[in-house]
Design a protein that fits this description.
The chain is mostly helical.
């Protein structure tokens, strides 16, 4: 965990949950696992507020708790998850994906579960049905059964999953069966249970829900009336009490990865090739884990039968396309056997490495130009080259090649490796080879993406704060000198950045989405190298 990641987590926690939760979450990220008393003492926060903050973090999956490091009987310790907090940046993408796959109903289901951390199925169905009914024409309403159908599809495709039982989260799983005398007891697991450890992870409860969504008639209900309505809704028994559901982020990430692979195949080859790869990924999407290096082997006969009806290609043409995909240098598809007309897999790790490589090349080209990108691409392919070899292979004049190499070296995008001929490391008897280490370079670019997120959020937050101060001063009839003094709180460089930001404000959301796509590809590639 880097300083950039901790800063970005702090900004996200403050934006979504407030300053107190941000203080507690940031402290846990920096200090590691701590018990309740230590958190309260080291953050100078009242114990009651610490408890409420931890409840919020646990509710949204950003904090785990378990038995202390001193063993059974020691105080419960809390540990914040940086990775889980950073997923807040991707919430709009999760919601948009649910809308694309399952329409408005799926979009609202995922949005509600993300906003509340976890919910029961019955509460989710009622809340979503009410929201959809409120946006319908007068006299129309949404059936609960339609929302239940969308919820069921999300669970069947593993986009939603049951939360681990609450009783198991804070304590290690212990066996109730007495140990046989003379045999050592099995060590208790200290890892928090995962959703997949629950055998009923994707099993829908039998819920008795009949009726329609209700339209909000009055917008001026008091807080007590709203609490009373919510308590009444919660008290209605539907048969799923205590069964909570959460968003399965790994399944969404698997979908994003598959879409990136399909897009890459479409741009490299053609639409039919991408549809074949899409069919292979769809057939194994539920059975392939996020850490798998390959999809499940599929025979050519199975792929042929599973192709969409509108792709009326013959079997010999399919075999030709599969051979083309296997022989392609990108190696997205591999052949694992000859039975059933040939067994084929999608090489997920190789695909992620190629996508990350293409991202790095694109960044170098955007920042330093096409000639620098040519040198960078050359070093990726040849691995190690001397400066003279770079000049010859890239066909770039010596002076320009030298300047470009030193620029890339100063940005840590290219590394210089010394290979001495003699033990004294004399420069005249040493080879100096330029190389690119893809994994460290990907980590470097990932940190740069986090820094972009931080700068954008800090500028927008400061701008909004000053605009709010100016509006309140103008409303209270402040003098022009006071308004000028507040406006000068923004420095000249920040003012220029804000002007550019306001000028491109409509492009800001798409820019954040593009940065997040880059972050996702780099994170997936780095994660795949750890599990290789």
């Amino acid at each position: 965990m880097t300083a950039q990641e901790v800063r970005l987590c702090g900004l996200l926690l403050q934006e979504h949950f407030g300053e107190v939760v941000e203080r507690i979450g940031t402290h846990l990220l920096r200090a590691g696992a701590q018990n309740l008393r230590n958190i309260a003492n080291e953050t100078n926060t009242p114990l009651d507020l610490v408890k409420k903050s931890l409840c919020v973090l646990v509710q949204h999956g950003a904090c785990e708790f378990g038995s202390g490091r001193r063993g059974p009987g020691s105080p419960v310790e809390y540990r914040a998850s940086c990775e889980r907090v950073l997923r807040v940046l991707r919430y709009p993408r999760y919601i948009y994906t649910a809308k694309t796959l399952y329409g408005d109903t799926g979009e609202l289901i995922v949005e509600e579960v993300l906003q509340r951390g976890h919910m029961t199925m019955s509460n989710t169905v009622k809340t979503v049905a009410d929201r959809l009914t409120h946006n319908m024409e007068e006299g129309r309403s949404m059936e609960y059964s339609e929302v239940v159908s969308a919820f069921s599809k999300l669970v069947e495709t593993h986009f939603l999953q049951r939360c681990p039982p609450v009783a198991e989260m804070g304590t290690a799983a212990t066996s109730t069966t007495p140990a046989t005398p003379g045999t050592p007891a099995a060590p208790a697991s200290t890892d928090p249970p995962t959703a997949e450890s629950n055998p009923d992870c994707y099993k829908l409860p039998h819920v008795t829900l009949t009726g329609r969504g209700k339209r909000r008639r009055s917008s001026d209900d008091s807080e007590e009336q709203r609490r009373g309505k919510k308590a009444k809704m919660d008290s209605e028994s539907c048969g799923d009490e205590g069964i909570y559901w959460q968003v399965n982020f790994e399944r969404f990430h698997q979908h994003f990865r598959d879409q990136a692979i399909i897009s890459a195949v479409a741009s490299k080859l053609d639409q039919t090739s991408s549809e074949i790869v899409r069919t292979m990924l769809r057939m194994s999407e539920v059975t392939t884990t996020q850490t798998a290096a390959y999809t499940q082997p599929l025979s050519a006969n199975e792929i042929f039968r599973s192709l969409p009806p509108n792709y009326s290609i013959s079997r010999p043409i399919l075999d030709q396309y599969l051979s083309l995909l296997v022989d392609d240098p990108m190696e997205f598809v591999g052949k694992s056997g000859d039975s059933g007309g040939g067994m084929y897999v999608v090489n997920l790790q190789r695909a992620l490495a190629n996508l990350a490589r293409a991202t790095l090349e694109s960044v170098v080209q955007e920042r330093f130009g096409s000639r620098s990108a040519r040198i960078f691409r050359l070093l990726l392919r040849k691995r190690h080259l001397e400066q003279k070899q770079v000049e010859d292979f890239a066909m770039i004049p010596a002076k320009e090649a030298k300047d470009m190499l030193y620029t890339l070296l100063s940005e840590n995008l290219v590394q210089l490796q010394e290979i001495p001929k003699t033990p004294d490391h004399a420069p005249s008897r040493t080879f100096y080879l330029y190389t690119v280490n893809q994994l460290p370079t990907a980590r470097l670019l990932l940190q740069h993406c986090y820094k972009v997120h931080i700068q954008t959020k800090r500028l927008l937050e400061k701008s909004q704060r000053i605009e709010a101060i100016l509006a309140s001063l103008q409303a209270s009839g402040a003098e022009p000198e006071q308004l000028t003094e507040v406006e000068e709180m923004i420095t000249a460089p920040e003012r220029q950045q804000l002007e550019a930001l306001r000028h491109h404000i409509n492009k800001l959301d798409s820019t954040e989405n593009q940065v997040d796509e880059t972050v996702f590809l780099l994170e997936s590639y780095i994660f795949s190298t750890k599990t290789k």
